[in-house]
Amino acid sequence: MLRCIAIDDEPIALDIIQAHARKVPFLDLKRTFVNAIEALGYLKTEKIDLIFLDINMPDLTGIDFAEVVNSSPDKPLIIFTTAYPEYALQGFELSALDYLLKPIGFGRFMQACNKAYERKQVASGKADGTERSPYVFVKDGYDWVRVNLDELQYVESEGNYLTFQEVNKKTLTRMTIGEAVELLPPTGFMRVHKSYIVALDRIEKIERHQLTIGKVQVPLSGSYRDELLERVK
Fold it and tell me: Which are the contacts of 3, defined by CB distance < 8 A and separation ≥ 6?
C-alpha cells in the first residue's frame, strides 16, 4: 500500500485526485492540503511514500517544496501536477517520478500510480534482499485489469495496442511499447524486439534470431541479443 498526500491550492483539483485515488486499490490517500507549509509540518511526523504536488502555488511553490523534501533522508516519491507544461523540465530536474498535466484523466493518473508502486517495490526488494512479485493495472476496455508480474510471460505490440500475456490469460490494452518498458520492473523484464518485452525467467531457449517461451517463438533483434545474453548468464 502506498501512503500518499496531495497538495494543491485549488480545492477542485484536490477533489479530482481524491476521486481518482479511491479507484486505485494500492493507494491510501491520508490527507490533502491547500497550504504547502502546513503539509511540510505534517511530513515531520508522518511517514509518506508519495506526494501529488502542484507546482504553481502561493507562499511556497511546488518546486521549492520538492527541494526541501528531497533533502530529507527518507524522501517520498513526487508526482507533479500542474496546468503549465513549461514547468515539466524543472520538475524532472528535481528527480520527480512523473508529471501530470491538468485536467488529470484517470488513465494517466493510474499509469503514474503504477510507476510509483513499482518503484516502491523495487526499493523494498533491495532493502530486505528478497525478490518481490508486484502487479500492475492496465486498462482493458472500460475496466482496469490486474496483471500479475510473476505470471507475465511477454508483452507483444500490435499497432496501437499491447497484449500482456500471462500464463493463463491475456489482457489487451491501448499503450505503447515504450510506456510498457517504463511500467515493468527492469530487473525482471527486457525489451528484445521493437514489438516485444519478455520476462527473463520465462525464457526457455535463446537462438540467433528468436526466443522460446512456452510454445511461443518470440523474435529477437540483433541489437538486443548481446545485452540479453549478458543478463541471463
Answer: 28, 30, 47, 48, 49, 50
- Do 75 and 40 form a contact (C-beta atoms < 8 A)? no
Rounded Cα–Cα distance for residues 129 and 121 (Å): 12
- Look at the domain 139-232 and name its fold: OB fold (Dihydrolipoamide Acetyltransferase, E2P) (2.40.50)
CA distance 222 to 42: 52
pLDDT per residue as tens digits for the range 18-35: 999 998 888 999 999 999
Judged by DSSP in three states, 59 sits in coil
Task: Give the helix ranges, DSSP H, for the chain.
Answer: 11-22, 36-43, 62-70, 88-93, 106-128, 177-183, 222-232
Which sequence spans correspond to the domains of the chain?
A: 2-128, 139-232
Burial of 166 (0-12, 13-18, 19+ CB in 10 A): middle
Nearest by Cα to 53 from 1, 10, 19 = 10
- Indicate the range of 3-12, 48-57, 63-72, 209-218 predicted with least confidence: 63-72
CATH number of 2-128: 3.40.50.2300
Q: CA-based angle 215:220:221, to the nearest 5?
A: 165
